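**Backbone geometry record:**
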Amino acid sequence: MPVRVLVQLLGDLLLAVAALSAALAMRPLQFGPDGELYQLSATAVVVFIASVLFSSFLMDVYDGTVKPRKREVFIRVVLAGMAACLPFSIVYALTPWLLPVKETLLLALFLFAAGQFCLHTAFGYVRLPQRILVLGTGPLAIQVGEIALTSCSPSLVVGYVSCGAETASIARKDEKTSVSVHAGQPKAEPVVGDAALLPQLAEEYRADALVVALSERRGVFPVSEVLQCKMRGVEILDTPTFYERSHKKLLLEQINPSWFFFSGGFRRTALFVVIKRFLDIVLSLLGLVITLPFFPIIALLIKVDSPGPLFFKQIRTGFNERTFVLYKFRTMRQDAELATGAVWSTENDPRITRIGVFLRTSRIDELPQFFNVLRGDMSFVGPRPERPEFVEKLKQVIPYYSKRHFVKPGLTGWAQVCYPYGASVEDAVEKLRYDLYYTKNLSAFLDLLIVLETIKVVLFGRGGR
C-alpha cells in the first residue's frame, strides 16, 4: 500500500476519534434507554471508526491512482458519509445503547466529513514522485518512460543514460527534439549523459532509483558505475520489477526464467497455508449460513424463467492442474453449448437467460462455490479457475500460463477486482499478469485487500458478464 494512502488512513482514524469526541462535547448530556448517563465506550469508538473508514474505502476516497479534483473529493466524501449511515442504522437496531443519540452521531459524521474533505484536498497537492534515471536509450527505455507515465504511484523520469552501441530512440540533451515511440505520448526526457558518468548523473539529477532498460547487457553493462550508485543509496531496478511495482501486475514480455529464480516472492509458508485454509472454512461456512435461506427464492426464479437444472456443473482446472467440478447457479439455456462446444461468454450473450443476466451481474450465480471452497477444491481468494479446454489452448500461446496453478483457484482474485470479465486470449494474457502478481506477492494483507475490493465490485456490479 502506498505510504500516501497509509498516512491518509492514519489521519482519518485520528480525525474520526476527534470528530466523535467533539460532537459529544458540543451536545448536551445524554442518557441511555435505561436512564443512565451515556458514557462513550471503546467499542462505540471502534464501531464509528470502522464504519466511516470502510464507507470511505467503498467510495474510493483512498484511491491513490489518480489526483482527484476538489469536486471529486467532495462527492466521494459525501457519498461515504451517506454510506456510513447504513452500518449505524444496523447498530442502532441491534444495540441501541451502544452509540450516542442520532443527533450527536450525525454531528460527528458531519465533522468527520468536513475534516476529511480538507485533509484529502490538502493531500492532493502533496505528491512527491520518485525520481527515475533510466539506463538505456532504445525501445525498452522508451517503454520505461511510458510505464512511469501510467504508474499507480507518481514517478518522474529525470533522464536517460546511454550505454554501449544500443540504437538510440531518444535524443540527447543538446538536441532540439526527442522521439517517442507512440504518437500522442508526451516527449521523453533527453539523454543526459553516458554510462561512464552514471554516479555523477544520479547525484546531479537527485535520482531515487535507476531502472536498467538495456535490450542487451552482455559486454556493455556498466557494473562498476551501477555498483557505485547502489552504494550511494540509489535503488536499482530492472524493467519487469519497475513495471510490477508501478502497475501491480507482471510484464510477461520482458520476463525470463532467471527473473523468477532470483526475484523475491513466490513463497508459501506452512503457517500461511494452514491459516488460509482455516479462514477458507470459516468464511465459506459463514457465507453458506447467510445465503442458504435465499437459495429457494433463487431456485424458483431460475425454474420459472427457463427449463433445465437448478445448478450448473462444469469441469475446471485447479491446484497443480488437477481438475474438479465447479458449481454455479444456471444462468444460460440448457443447450447453450450444444452446437458450439466450449466458448467464452460474450457481451450481451444470447445464451444467457433473463434471470441469468441479474445473477451474473450481481455474482449471485457463484454462491454455490462456497461448497467448492469448503471441500478444498478452491480457496476464498486466488486466480479464477479456467476450463481445461481453454487452459490447454492458452498454455500453447501464453508464456508461463501454467504457473497460475501453483496456488489454489479462488472465489475471487486480484485479476477479478482489477480487470473486467475476460473473453479472449488477449484478456487471458492481461489477467495472467495480475494472477502471477498475486502468486508472487501472496500475503494475508493482499487477501484482505482483495476481499474488500470484491465487496465494491459486487455492490457496484463491476465487470460482470
Remarks:
- Residues 130-247 form a domain with the Rossmann fold fold (CATH 3.40.50.20).
